[in-house]
Amino acid sequence: MIFFLASCGQEEKKASDLLKRAEASFQAANYSEAKLRIDSIRNLYPKVFDVRRKAIGLMQQVELKEQQNSLAYLDSMMAVKQTALDSVKGAYVFEKDTAYQEIGNYFYPTQIVEKNIGRTFLRASVNEMGEMSITSIYCAGGSLNHTSVKVSSSDAFAQTPTSPDMYVTTDLGRTIEKADYKLGADGGVIGFIIANKDAKSLKLEFIGDRSYRTVMYSPDIKAIVEVSKLAQILSSMEEIRKEQKEANLKIQFLNKKIAENAAEVN
After folding, report:
1. Which of 123-129's residues contact partners 24+ apart within 8 Å by CB, and which partners?
2. How many CB atoms lie within 10 A of CB 216?
3. First to last CA, the chain
4. Which of 8, 125, 102, 72 is nearest to 244 (CA)?
C-alpha cells in the first residue's frame, strides 16, 4: 500500500510538472508544443484525474487561441482579396435580376447580350460565388440540338462533355440554342483557351444532331481569360468565407465548453 501510494504521488508530481511546462508553452504562444505536452499527460498518466482535468481545460484554451489566430488571419486575407476585387470589378459588367435571381453574374463587356445579338460564340461568366462557366450560343440558322463544343488549335483540341443544361430560347423570332458548361465539368475547354490566350483565333465546333464550325477570335478568347481571373478572386473569397464560418463555429463551441468547465469548478 505504501509503495502504491508513493507511486501515485510520483505520477501526480510528474504529471503536474508536465502540465506546468504545457502552460508555459501556451503562454509563450508555442501552441504545438503545448498540445504535445498535454497529449503526453493523457497518454502517460491516465489515472491522475485532477491533473488530466486541468490539462483538458488547457487544451481547450490552446485550441481557442489557435482558432482566434486563424480567424484573424482569414480576416486579413479577406481584406486583401476584397481590395483586389475592388480594383478590377469595374472592368466587368454585373447583371442580376432580383425578381428571379439570388446570385448575380459577371460578364466581360464585349460579351454582354446587347453587343452580341444574332452571334454564334462562346460566352464566359462567373457568379458572385466564384463559379465560372461558359455558354455555347448557337443562332446560325437551322436546328442543331447541340450539347457539346470542341475548341481546336493547329495541333491540339479540347471538347466538353455532354451538357446537362441545354435549352432553347427565341429572340425576335430567331431560335437560339444555349448550353452551359461549368469549370471543372467542361472537359478542359476553359483551360485550353487560357493556354492559347495569345492565339489570334481558334476553331470552334458546335456538336449535336449535326456539327457547325466557326472561328473564335481574340476578343472572345480574351473575354474568357479575363473572366477566369475574376473567378479566381471570387472563388478564393468564397473559400475564405467558408473557413471563417467554420472557425467561428469552433470558437463558439470552445467558449461554451470553457464556460461549462468553469461552472463545474465553481
Report:
1. 123/220, 123/223, 124/190, 124/223, 124/224, 124/227, 124/228, 125/227, 126/227, 126/228, 126/230, 126/231, 126/234, 127/103, 127/234, 128/103, 128/104, 128/234, 129/103, 129/234, 129/235, 129/238
2. 20
3. 33
4. 72
Per-domain boundaries in the chain: 2-86, 92-241
* Residue 185 confidence (pLDDT): 96
pLDDT for res 171? 78
Judge contact between 142 and 176, C-beta under 8 A: no
The reported pLDDT for the residue numbered 141 is 85
Reported confidence tier of residue 2, pLDDT bands at 50, 70, 90: very low
| Choice between 244 and 47, residue whose per-residue pLDDT is larger | 244
CATH, domain 92-241, list 3.40.50, 2.60.40, 2.40.128, 1.10.1740 = 2.60.40
Distance of CA 40 to the CA centre of its chain: 36
Are 212 and 120 a contacting pair, CB within 8 Å?
Answer: yes
Q: Smallest Cα–Cα separation from 243: which of 123, 36, 75?
A: 75
Q: Could you read off the pLDDT of 34-72 as tens digits, one per residue? A: 999 999 998 988 888 899 999 999 999 999 999 999 999
CB contact at 8 A, 106 and 89: yes
Residue type at 251 in one-letter notation? I
pLDDT at 128 over 50: yes
Pair 117, 173: CB distance under 8 Å? no
Mean pLDDT of the chain: 92
